[in-house]
# Entry
Amino acid sequence: MQELLELLEKDYTLTVQQLSSMLDRPEEEISAMISQLEADKIIVRYQTIVNWEKAGSDRVTAIIDVKITPQREVGFDSLAERIYRFPEVRSLYLMSGAYDLMVMVEGANLKEISRFVSNKLSTIEGVVSTTTHFMLKAYKESGVILEDKEEDRRLAVSP
Amino acid sequence: MNWQERLSPTVKALPPSGIRRFFDIVAETKGVVSLGVGEPDFVTPWHIRESCVYGLQKGYTSYTSNSGLLELRQEITKHVSAKYAVTYDPRSEALITVGVSEALDLAMRAILSPGDEVLVPEPCYVSYKACVSLAGGTPVAVTTTLEKEFRVTVEQLEEQVTPRTKVLLIGYPNNPTGAILTRDELIAIAAFAEKHDLIVISDEIYGDLTYQGQHTCFSSLPGMRDRTILLNGFSKAYAMTGWRIGYALANADLIAAMTKIHQYTMLCAPITGQLAAVEALKYGQPDVDEMVAVYNQRRRLMIDGFRRIGLPCFEPKGAFYIFPSIRETGISSLAFAEELLKAEKVALVPGDAFGSCGEGFVRCSYASSTANLTEAIERIGRFVQRFR
# Structure
């Protein structure tokens, strides 16, 4: 199962037939495993990594460090949910160290993000402070180098 | 000046590498999916490359000792001892070379005299026989067969052995067939070597790329350490072909003789590659494991692929090659490779480039992406339909 997940994490376009060969298991078994992993939400979603800058998009991404006051009984989770429900929020992590939540926000432009921070995020009760860092350039996402200049330089035929 | 007349007869008599001829045709064709590449498609792991950059920054640009960096020799002997339980003295029984190719050449030159015969099971790596000839020896091909999955047997060796046989040269896991030899088969070969008092040169460059069971190091077999010249390197397992770092482990007298030739002809292997090799041995095992797992997935993809399109092939259990039979098409390996290239733009290597018993087969390398391999299989499948 581990091997199947690793393969799909890298490339979900692999067909059941390919996976069946590569993992040396019958196709029916692979199909059943994938369905089960999807049902169990272990496979959460199949997504594509897009180099938006190259696609000509002007979207802006910011990483916001948020300090919050944990709440009785629910700790950080309830406040986190209030934040991650906003569609602008792309990722949200609870962190150790100088702040509590790392919020990754995406917007059409700077203004849209600052509006989100000042109107929505910092006004939530329990949010103590926010520090916003705008992202200047993406080099690598989810383990993938976005503009990998390393191509296949091997001779087409060699002994 | 007529240079043809002045060339050494030995060199003149050497046939040009069959692969080279085919390479020229491939190079002229565009949009080729190549299964013809005999090296990993992975780039050397970053931490290994980075350690070389660091070495350059620190000014490591000089010669090393003729034998190679002691630290590298120590790491190698430690690694071999841990993995195969056979020990060598890093100071006197190890030599760092410019790839296994140089090690093989040095070994041959150190031991062969005119008339000495070397048993070379075929199909095999393209340089084996040439190395023997250039060293003044006589290569004696030992034919292996599909029926035995191209694993050389003692019976086949016995047929070719003569009183002049001095060396047995084996390379398993094998390029081009992907065949491996089991421990029991190697033990039988060891007994054969003992019986005829032969030196065994064991090229184990693909040893780490073994997908079923564990690779058996020939010199680790009982009684074999003293008569074996063990050759290995970093090219395949660590994806470091271009660095050109190999090594030989053997008896101190032989290593001293090889070192003598090496010091006059090569001086030393490049220091940058040696530094990188130290890093590879110290911290590179997880990379090897990961690459082996990926090769294994692709290997299965290829076995299944060829079965689906109906080209018979035995299951290769090592290296990154698969060696399907194309006999049913009724054309030669070279014609198959050329026609396939023309019709479907897939490059592979005709099997006879690796010895005449490779005729009727083609070597396909699966050191390529899943997408490429799938596409290549589809094209080959379409191509062989023409002959049905």
About this structure: The mean pLDDT of chain A is 94. The longest helix of chain A spans residues 27-39.
